[in-house]
Structure formats: structure tokens, C-alpha cells
Amino acid sequence: MSADSAGSAGSADLAPPLAVRAVTKSFGAVAAVREVSFALLPGEVHALVGENGAGKSTIVKMLAGVYRPDSGTIEIDGIPRELDSPAAALAAGIAVIYQEPTLFPDLTVAENVVMGRQPRRSFGRVDRAAMNALAAGFFARLGVAIDPERPARGLSIADQQIVEIAKALSLDARVIVMDEPTAALSPVEVERLFAVARALRADGAALLFISHRFEEITALCQRVTVLRDGALVSTDALDELTVDEIVRRMVGRPLATLFPKQDVPIGDVVLSVDGLRRSGVFRDVSFEVRAGEIVALAGLVGAGRSEVVRAVFGVDPRDGGRVRVNGRELRAADPRAAMSAGVALVPEDRRQQGLVLEASVQRNATATRWRRLARFGLLFGGAERRAAAEWTAKLRTKYASLDDPVALLSGGNQQKVVLAKWLSTQPSVLIVDEPTRGIDVATKAEVHRLMSELAADGVAVLMVSSELPEVLGMADRVLVMREGVLVAEIPRERADEETVMRAATGQEVAA
Q1: What distance in Å separates the CA atoms of residue 491 and residue 293, rounded to the nearest whole number?
Q2: Residue 366 to residues 127, 341, 343: CA-CA distances in angstroms?
Q3: What is the pLDDT, as a whole number, of residue 9?
Q4: d(CA 422, CA 391)
């Protein structure tokens, strides 16, 4: 289906709630979006997909009033609108729900929902009873139970997103943009969010859903628009497409297997964890990872997986237990000792924990090697540049210049810079926490290929992942955690979604 036919789909007499018409946006010499057109219909969830750098975030920011298009128009109910500020976007009926909401933590839930529009009593006093009743009505409409009088501080990410959606309803928003809303949610929270999205759709709202998870897109959406390199590829009904076809359109070529797991000989134990514990977080965690082996640490959000690997590396303290690398015991809470022993940790939150966003690609890619690259205590730019160029090239990282701030890179390329930083140390143990969260399918395949090649070279790989297809596709063994306890060890030949989820939810505990 062409963009024009997509834009005119539905009733011939009813303009779509939102239509993007030939919008273009450039930053300097780089065209982020080029002549993109698509439309949202009333009562549909419309997926917007593409690789990192395809233009999705730029489209979202134009709809949110953060960026203005260089050319083209954005129409609301068939009328071109100037979305020159976030306030203008809200006034036009567009609300954006981000992955990480921005509520006022010291205000109540109800105050956040009706911010700036509180019902008043005599003498201008806020009518708190009416305000709480309004918020409760929006939550009832969404089918969720959140106390309007509780402070926003301490709400889960999932509840914060629901509050943002209730706020959108209070503003009479008819177009709701969900930008990677499920990245930090548990499966139960994802399903609740989907129930809310279906309720909004049933009320006639138009939703734009952005996600890298195809199982979510196929479960929720009716149509899909594909972007590649800033340009529109297609808009089609989802039931007319296969996932393979969507992927081919995203990357412009048939994609090699997403999980290129090699069968390699498993060697000696490299990483040994014995009786690791931290009060109130995890207890009695013991496992081994051998050379050439990929071991996945699975479980629901909050099971303690990230906390365990951070304690193994020494970022977080531990109350007891031992960690050995090639037989050498590591001191607790000492990341430098772990690095010296050949351990590398690619953290879950690359932006907050893995990168200095204001620093250059070059400086980030060599951050773990400054001492080795320095001569007489001085770090020379030439050596640093050569090292950065070597490893970013090996990982096929896309950037305009090594001197650019790493913040300018797409999420997938930022992840490659983090990997370059650690792989340049030539580790014997690689710990990767959510290695493909928030990156596109082509970059996922590259990260998986890299992990498989490292295992083939004898590196012991410990992977934390919330994506079951990734766990099942890449792991030689699956270790399942629940409530801070290691409850199951499942070999590759017995690992399937049902077995892992039964262990993660406490329905089955395997030795």
C-alpha cells in the first residue's frame, strides 16, 4: 500500500486523526527524515518500525513539538497544524508516552494527572475531592486500579506510564504515541499496558506504537509503517505481512539468522561463583561458566539478575560468597581487580552506566585502555584514535566522526561503542546485561554474531536477558532466578519458553 493510499484509508468522508505528509528534517548535512508520509486511523494501533537511525525518534519529536519539520505538514483531522512546541502538540490532541515518564515525584497521582487544570472551589482553592474523583474516573476508564491520592514517588515505571496515559485522557488527546513503552516492563506489566491500549483503541483513539519487539507488534497492532535510512518503505496491514518480510524491508536485504549460535567445544571453568549473597537482594547464588560457553541468566524483572552480575564484577558489594576467575579469587567490591583478572561488564543501562554521553566516540571507545595507551603518563591522541578506529570498525559502528559526542549516535551504535570499549581489553569473561535492549533487529543479529564468535574463541560469556527468544537462541545453559534465588539450571536441549517461565514464576523448581 502506498503512503497516499494509507493516508486516505478508512472513510472517504472522515479525515484521519493524524496524517504526516511528506515531512523532511535534516541536522546539518544529515537528513534524518526524508519525505515521509503515513496516517493513523481512528481506533487503530499503528506500528512504526525501523532500524536505529531510521528516523523513528525524529518523527516522534516532530509529533511532540520538540522539532519542527523543514518541509511537509502534520495534519490533525485534515487540518495542517504548526507543532512548534510541546504545548502546541498537546493542544492539538497529541500525547507522547515515553519509555521513562517524567512525573513530578512529590505531587500526588491526581495532581500529576490534572496538572494546571485542577478543579477549583470558592476563592480559587483546589477542590481535592473533585480532583481525585476525576483521576479515579480516568483510571476506571483504563481498567486499572491506582490510588489517586498516593505520591508519584515510588510508582513503578508501568504505573507511571498509566498515569501519563490518564493525563493524556484528561487533555482529550485523540492521538497517543507510545515510544518503546515496554522496554523496562515485566511480562505482566506489558499485558496490562496492552489492555489499556486496547481500551483506548475501543474508545476511538489512534495509537502510534514504536517497538523493536515483533511479538508485541503482532499482538497489538493493525497496520505497520516501515522506515529505512530516514525514508518511507511501506505502510501495510499487519495481517498481510510476515515478520521476515518486515525485517527484510527494515534492513533492505534478507537477514541472516538472528541467533547465529555456533556449536563449539566447551572448555575448562573460567568463572566460578560460590555462595554469593547480599542481604535483601539475593542469596546463595552459585554457578560456573566455562570457556566457549554462553550462559544466560533469566528471570522476571526484579529477580536479582543484574544485581548478581554487578556483584560478580565488583560494582556492587556482596555480603558473602566467593568469585574466582581462572582459579584466582577476586576481592569483593573491586572492579579494578575484576578487570585485571580479565572480566568485562557491559551494563544494562548503556547511557547512564556505560558511556559518557558528552565525550567523543573515540574517548568512550578507549576508556578502559587509557593506561595501556599512555606513554610516560600522557595519553596521545594518535594512539587513542587508532585504537578507537580499530575496534569501532570491527563492530561495524556507524558515526560521522570519532570526535563526535557519543550522544549523537543511535542506540545500537552506542551499544557497539560500549562493546568496543570492553572487547578491546580482550577479556576471558564477558558479562553482558540486556545486550540488545532497545536496538534494532539488524544490530541485534550483529551483537549475537559477535557473542557467538567470542565464545568460539574461548571467551566465557554470561548474558542477562529478559527476551526469551534471545535466551533460547543463544544460550548453552539457562540459569533461572526468582526472588533473589537461583531456582533452575536448564540445558539448551531442554530449554523452551514454557520451561523457563514455569521456573521464573515459581511453578516449577529444577535442580
Answers
A1: 12
A2: 57, 19, 16
A3: 41
A4: 10
- Copy the grid coordinates of residue 208: 502510534
Q: Judge whether 304 and 484 are in contact, CB under 8 Å.
A: yes
**Contact present, 9 and 41 (Cβ < 8 Å):** yes
Partnered with residue 310 across adjacent β-strands are none
HEC states along 247-299?
Answer: HHHHHCCCCCCCCCCCCCCCCCEEEEEEEEEECCCEEEEEEEEECCCEEEEEC
Which DSSP symbol is given to 238? G
Reading across the β-sheet that carries 231-237, which strands appear in turn?
79-81, 71-76, 18-27, 30-40, 231-237, 223-228, 45-49, 206-210, 175-179, 94-97
pLDDT in tens, 9-41: 444 457 999 999 999 999 887 789 999 999 999
CA angle, 152 then 154 then 160, to 5°: 55
SS (H, E, C) 477-511: EEEEEECCEEEEEEEHHHCCHHHHHHHHCCCCCCC
What residues does 126 pair with on adjacent strands? 120
**Listed residue (318, 314, 319) closest to 333, CA to CA:** 314
Query: DSSP secondary-structure letter at 239?
Result: G
CA angle 248, 198, 174 (to 5 degrees): 95
Q: pLDDT tens across 39-72, in order?
A: 999 999 999 999 877 899 999 999 999 999 999 9
Q: DSSP for 293-358?
A: -EEEEE--TTSSHHHHHHHHHTSS--SEEEEEETTEEPPTT-HHHHHHTTEEEE-S-IIIII--TT
If DSSP codes are grouped into helix, strand and coil, which group holds residue 234? Answer: strand
H or E stretch at 215: helix 214-220
Burial grade of 153 (CB within 10 A; 0-12, 13-18, 19 or more) = exposed
The residue ranges of the chain whose pLDDT is under 50 are 1-12, 509-511
What is the Cα–Cα distance from 318 to 477, expressed in whole angstroms?
25
Quote the pTM value.
0.69
Spatial CB neighbours of 455, under 8 Å, sequence gap ≥ 6: 262, 264, 292, 293, 294, 461
Residue found by looking up cell 521476515 in the block? 244
Cα(477)–Cα(493) distance, rounded to whole angstroms?
A: 9
Q: How many whole angstroms separate alpha carbon 84 and alpha carbon 285? A: 53
Q: Which of 470, 477, 471 is closest to 494 using CA atoms?
A: 477
Mapped onto helix, strand or coil, the DSSP state of residue 378 is strand
- As given in the structure block, the three cell numbers for residue 76 are 490533525
According to the model, what pLDDT value does residue 166 have?
93
User: How many CB atoms are located within 10 Å of the residue 314 CB?
Assistant: 22
Contact of 458 with 270, CB cutoff 8 Å: no
